[in-house]
Write a structure and sequence with these properties.
It is a single chain. By secondary structure, this protein is mainly α. It has ten helices and no strands. The longest helix is centred in the N-terminal third of the chain and has 24 residues. It is an enzyme of class 2 (transferase). Belongs to the PlsY family. Its EC number is 2.3.1.275. This is Glycerol-3-phosphate acyltransferase.
């Protein structure tokens, strides 16, 4: 019974539409009507600004982290990744937003943070490097998802200080989320090919399109 209740809680936690609520409550805007129409962090940055974007990112990240930590908090003998995955499903199919959610990147990262902080920061470094080199959040998100999946297999053998043991569930979850993230970025991929994808400005003569 406790596990069932926590599964529902993890889903509801993931279903919190951070970008939509922040936009409506503080800016009187539904961000789904602006920019890319997505309710996630990147569109929040573009539509509502850096402060709102950072808050939404933190909320979406911590949803995955808290959900993943539920078995630890309540002393359950269950792989925490299951609860993190449920939160990601909630984020992508939120009951509070007509089952139309984000692209799962931030909440998936939060799941990794809850499962292994070292693995999270290792992956974050890769994400930031790709983001800086490409200036495109979509490119960084896709390549980071692939990188995390491959690292979940290789790290226990080449760098066990980061990820001591190989967990097949971690690899499976990462692989499934990578497929989903690539699918959700299909329009971004088309814009990348066309050379019209939005870019991030780092203040070094890189202008956002």
């Amino acid at each position: 019974m406790k596990i069932a209740i926590l599964i529902v809680f993890a889903y509801l936690l993931g279903s919190i539409p951070s970008g939509i609520w922040i936009g409506k409550f503080f800016f009187k805007k539904d961000i789904r009507n602006f920019g890319s129409g997505n309710s996630g962090t990147t569109n929040t940055f573009r539509v509502l600004g850096k402060a709102a974007g950072l808050i939404v990112f933190a909320m979406d990240l911590l949803k995955g982290t808290l959900a993943t930590c539920l078995p630890i908090i309540f002393h359950l003998d269950v792989n925490p990744l299951w609860f993190g995955l449920i939160a990601v499903i909630g984020h992508t199919l939120p009951v509070f937003a007509d089952f139309k959610g984000g692209k799962a990147v931030a909440t998936s990262a939060g799941m990794i943070l809850g499962y292994s902080p070292l693995f999270f920061f290792y992956s974050l470094v890769f994400f930031l490097i790709v983001l800086y080199l490409s200036s495109m959040v979509s490119v960084a998100s896709i390549f980071s998802a692939i990188f995390v999946t491959l690292s979940s297999i290789a790290l226990p053998y080449i760098w066990p200080a980061i990820l001591p043991t190989h967990n097949w569930l971690l690899t499976l979850v990462c692989f499934l989320l990578t497929c989903y993230i690539i699918y959700r970025h299909k329009e971004n991929i088309q814009r990348i090919k066309a050379g019209t994808e939005n870019r991030v400005s780092f203040g070094l003569n890189k202008k956002e399109k």
